[in-house]
Amino acid sequence: MKKKGVSGTLADILLKRRIVTVESLPRVEEDAKAAGLALEKFLVEKKMATAEDVTLAISEYLDMPPISLAHFVPDTALMESLTKEVLTKYQIIPLARTGNHLTIAMADPFDIVAIDDLRMATGLGITPLAATNPPSETCSSDRSPTTPPTTSTWKTS
């Protein structure tokens, strides 16, 4: 049984958005499974869909707002509050902190492990947004914090 999001299955949304056709869907799903990839990753990797189109479909599926990072300038303090390893491993960019909550842009909003790891590392609630541009491209600058982040960086008040 396929999981259903707010707007149906991801396949339903891909069909509705004309990213795949009814005729091609079974074969694409089979090929993705044989390749050991999630359907959305397979479509992008095989250049059958753009990353932006797939991200918008995922956003609709998860009822999660998408964010374009094309002209986004990351907040230095937020970027330095996480290690470069965490940023690149999970392909995230911290966008905003409000009280005890951190909003992040993610390349893969299905990555529950990343969200849980961030929650544990920061002690903050995490709100993911689906990034239409891979965060790794946006944060590929040579950010090298002078001191590593510590748990005191995230003290909640």
Number of domains: 2
Strand content: 5-15%
Extended strand count: 4
Q: How confident is the prediction overall: mean pLDDT?
A: 82
Gyration radius over CA: 17 Å
Largest sheet: 4 strands, mixed
Instruction: Give the neighbour order of strands across the main sheet.
Output: 1-4-3-2
- Low-confidence stretches at least 5 residues in length (pLDDT < 50)? 140-157
State the CATH topology of the largest domain. GMP Synthetase, Chain A, domain 3
**Total DSSP helices:** 8
CATH architecture of the largest domain: 2-Layer Sandwich
Q: Tell me the distance between the termini.
A: 44 Å
Silhouette? elongated
SS-based structural class? alpha/beta
Helix fraction by DSSP (H/I, runs of at least 4): 40-55%
The CATH C-level name of the largest domain is: Alpha Beta
H and E string: HHHHEHHEEHEH
What is the CATH superfamily label of the largest domain? Type II secretion system, protein E, N-terminal domain
Q: What this model shows, in words?
A:
The longest helix is centred in the middle third of the chain and has 12 residues, at about 50-60. It is elongated, with a radius of gyration of 17 Å. It has a 4-stranded mixed beta sheet with strand order 1-4-3-2. The chain has helices spanning about 10-15, 25-35, 40-45, 50-60, 75-80, 85-90, 110-120, 135-140; strands at about 65, 90-100, 100-105, 125-130. With about 160 residues, it is of the alpha/beta class. It starts with 9 loop residues before the first helix and ends in a 19-residue tail after the last helix. α2 (about 25-35) packs across α3. It contains 8 helices and 4 strands, in the order ααααβααββαβα. The protein folds into 2 domains: about 10-65; about 65-155, Type II secretion system, protein E, N-terminal domain (GMP Synthetase, Chain A, domain 3, 2-Layer Sandwich).
